[in-house]
Design brief:
CATH superfamily of the largest domain: Immunoglobulins
Distance between the termini: 130 Å
Strand order of the largest sheet: 2-9-8-4-5
Radius of gyration: 53 Å
Number of helices: 0
CATH class of the largest domain: Mainly Beta
Shape: elongated
Helix content: under 10%
């Protein structure tokens, strides 16, 4: 079954001596329901002064004419096989000439600016009674700002749209024919923080000192925290934070491009918190991500394209120099700079166009340079050494001992890069256990290990570069 339960009740009843009064409770639960009544914790004695009834789930204690000594705490209890429930009612019988008194006086209250607050109290005493409200000595009247309420012994004052001037002492005055009584409370207004001056976003050069500063108002004490993104900052290293009562500053020393980002100032107090975001952008110096090739070999009358890649914060200015003299746009020199790619195009080159070409990239944050050596050539020479005869003479035959190691070596004069081909009796020679081919700068060699009859023959070396090729050869035979 359902447990016995009180669903409607009277908690505080106040009547004047001689008046009738009813304490009433509505209950629920599965029968059989049993009722009990107590006064001040003791079973209520039988009396002709009142009548007790329980009908249709409504229990009543009815006083025909209340007397002063009937005042007290009345407890009603309802029970069945599955539960028990009770409720206590404070019953006060007043003398007809009882002056007002506060059963629940006003309390001090903290509230936040721009919100609403309510001052509450409870009053007993003979009716009729009037209630007045005062701030300091000035009476408050109902208006859009003030709502005044008084009913059944409860008095309240609601104050809307609080501002700093609403702070102070409030008095509730209850008056009847027997006298008057005051209760007072102090209203404290807490102001959440707000910025007077917010930290400002900044674009700076690398290695600068940056200072973000905020000033604010609000009820002290205020707590200030600084963040970069989600990470809280603390004083130390290249960061210094200074906070006063109503101001705070963040200093960053010798900033780098990776110090760029969002810097947040958060100010809090008991009434709330507020944040402000300032952006820091540290300019990135101009720098080459891909430099010019170290050397360029160009055929006389031909063309060359010098390219390099640049990074950095715009605007970047590109300047080209040849042997420290600035180049200007002309038929021979055409310059472009798009999508980080800097290009110098040389056309119809002459021998005197050989030299060092320098590209300079510059912006507010710094500069960088890279260079290349351009050589304008029309020839390639090979000078044989040791076993190789010179190109101007007849091929020289050469005799070697069986099982000896033979080295054919020549020096190349000309402009790299070179392509080298070795041939024996018109068949290509490749690196193997028998042959080792090496090229070190201008020195080219073929090493033949444990020379035997199968190695006898004519050895040729062909060297090629962008502008020509050369050939030298030697006949190698066995001794004896």
């Amino acid at each position: 079954g359902k447990p016995a339960k009180i669903i409607e009740k009277s908690e505080v009843i106040q009547v004047t001596a001689g008046d009738p009064a009813i304490l009433e409770y509505t209950v629920t639960g599965t029968p059989e329901l049993k009722t009990k009544w107590f006064k001040d914790g003791k079973p209520l004695p039988a009396s002709k002064k009142y009548r007790i009834s329980f009908k249709n789930n409504v229990a009543q204690l009815k006083f025909y004419a209340a007397e002063m000594q009937d005042s007290g705490e009345y407890t009603f209890e309802i029970s069945n096989d599955v539960g028990i429930s009770s409720c206590t009612t404070s019953f006060t019988v007043l003398d007809r000439t009882l002056p007002p008194f506060f059963t629940k006086p006003l309390k001090n209250i903290d509230s936040i600016i721009s919100t609403s607050c309510r001052l509450d109290c409870k009053i007993s005493g003979s009716l009729p009674m009037t209630v007045s409200w005062f701030k300091q000595d000035t009476e408050i009247t109902a208006s859009a700002k003030y709502t005044i309420h008084f009913a059944e012994g409860s008095a309240s004052l609601e104050i809307k749209h609080l501002d700093a001037s609403d702070a102070g002492v409030y008095i509730c005055r209850a008056t009847n024919s027997a006298g008057s009584k005051d209760s007072s409370s102090t209203l404290f207004i807490k102001e959440p923080p707000s910025f007077i001056a917010e930290p400002e976003s900044q674009d700076v050069l690398p290695a600068s000192t940056v200072r973000f500063k905020g000033t604010f108002k609000g009820t002290t004490p205020l707590t200030v925290k600084w963040f970069k993104g989600d990470t809280e900052l603390i004083t130390g290293g290249a960061c210094y934070i200074m906070t006063e009562a109503l101001a705070s500053s963040l200093e960053l020393y010798a900033v780098k491009p990776n110090d760029s980002g969002k810097y947040i100032c958060k100010v809090s107090n008991v009434a709330g918190s507020i944040t402000s975001i300032a952006n820091l952008f540290v300019k990135e110096p101009a720098a080459f991500t891909e430099k010019l090739e170290p050397t360029h070999l160009v055929k006389k009358g031909g063309y060359a394209e010098l390219t390099c890649k640049v990074t950095g914060t715009p605007e970047i200015k590109i300047t080209w120099f040849k042997d420290d003299r600035e180049l200007k746009e002309s038929d021979k020199f055409r310059m472009s700079f798009t999508k980080s790619l800097a290009v110098l195009h040389l056309t119809d080159v002459e021998t005197e166009d050989s030299g060092e070409y320098i590209c300079e990239a510059r912006n507010d944050a710094g500069k960088d340079t890279c260079s290349t050596i351009v050589t304008v050539k029309g020839v390639c020479d090979v000078q044989p050494l040791k076993q190789f005869v010179s190109l101007n003479s007849e091929f020289q035959s050469m005799e070697v001992l069986k099982d000896s190691d033979v080295i054919l070596e020549c020096e190349v004069l000309g402009t790299p890069p070179f392509e080298v081909f070795w041939v024996k009796d018109d068949k290509p020679v490749r690196s193997s256990k028998k042959h080792r081919i090496s090229t070190e700068k201008s020195l080219i060699s073929l090493h033949v290990f444990r020379f035997d009859a199968s190695d006898v023959g004519e050895y040729q070396c062909r060297v090629t570069n962008d502008v020509g090729s050369c050939l030298c050869s030697s006949e190698v035979t066995l001794k004896g």
